[in-house]
Design goal:
By secondary structure, the protein is α/β, with parallel strands linked by helices. It contains 11 helices and 10 strands.
Length: about 325
């Protein structure tokens, strides 16, 4: 397998070695193995998060990159508690009735970011369909506190769809995050099975509206592969994202968190991820494509922000 893999929008790409059946199930391929978390920086970040009684998506969602990211002094903060009102088939975050909103959470997040001396902070949340604005006010308050506690720190928000409420989206956008992220997660055909309480057109509309509200804010989205999608479907999602003005896209391999979650239909080969990156950047015009087996929404987000800042895109 070489870089000769075609990147044109071929609806039926040739079948290479990675399509062989033995890659579909069973033991993880070597390219999906990660090291156990360790190191002084990891321990320090762990203590900071515990001391402030915060949640991170790194832990709650069982991210395979936890050790690498915490070891580099980065983390993605999970706002609005650790209980989600939606039951997506791929996600490890627990589902149920959330606790009361903690209005002091923005201060504790900002204080932790200050202690970590972050130059780029990533905020996300569980879905809170029980709240009138889906929790948008907490995102806004946290952005304001970060600006106060850690001036110069760029902010990326990975938001839910807020049930399509434009006022909730504006609550976040008027605080001018440098990057507005909302994941489509999978291809439209699989939504009913993968994201039963979400809608693909609604997610695209969130991204389109965000770019209209503030064209200077970079928009970002991500999807998983390995759930039964086809190559041409992934390419079409990428085209859809570009059509609504998305600047950055992340593509990674779905990993089953437990036997109660959706099964893995296929492990995509690293060369396929490289081909998607080349296609996205060279053919479709994304400013950045982060594509690889272990890529998640916030993977290398600090590096993306620094490079984009250097090229005067922020």
């Amino acid at each position: 397998m070489t870089d000769s893999l075609p990147i044109e929008l071929d609806p039926n790409p040739p079948k290479h070695d990675w399509h062989r059946p033995q890659l579909t199930r069973g033991r993880r391929p070597d390219w999906l193995r990660v090291s156990a978390p360790s190191g002084q920086t990891f321990v320090r970040v762990n203590h900071l998060i515990r001391d402030e009684h915060l949640h991170t998506v790194c832990e709650e969602a069982g991210c395979p990159n936890l050790g690498e990211c915490w070891g580099r002094g980065t983390a993605t903060f999970l706002l609005l508690g650790d209980t989600c009102t939606r039951s997506c088939g791929f996600c490890k975050i627990k589902v149920g009735r959330p606790e009361k909103v903690d209005i002091l959470e923005p201060i504790r997040v900002a204080r932790t970011i200050q202690h970590m001396n972050l130059r780029h902070a990533v905020l996300t949340s569980v879905n809170r369909d029980d709240l009138p604005d889906g929790g948008a006010f907490i995102f806004a308050a946290t952005i304001r506190k970060i600006r106060e506690f850690q001036p110069g720190c760029t902010v990326e928000v990975l938001i839910p769809d807020f049930q399509g409420d434009p006022d909730a989206l504006w609550t976040v956008m008027r605080e001018k995050p440098e990057i507005l992220n909302h994941n489509v997660e999978t291809v439209p055909r699989l939504y009913r099975r993968v994201r039963p309480q979400a809608k693909y057109p609604r997610s695209l509309e969130v991204l389109r509206r965000a770019k209209e509200m503030d064209p200077q804010t970079l928009t970002k989205s991500g999807l998983m592969v390995g759930l039964g999608e086809r190559w041409e479907e992934v390419v079409q999602v990428m085209k859809d994202l570009r059509e609504v003005g998305v600047d950055i896209v992340t593509i990674g391999q779905y990993l089953q968190p437990s036997r109660f979650h959706l099964p893995i239909e296929r492990y995509w080969h690293p060369e396929e991820f490289k081909a998607l990156r080349r296609l996205g950047e060279e053919e479709l015009g994304f400013r950045w494509v982060e594509s690889g087996p272990l890529v998640r929404s916030s993977y290398h987000a600090d590096g993306q922000a620094r490079l984009i800042a250097r090229t005067d895109l922020l």
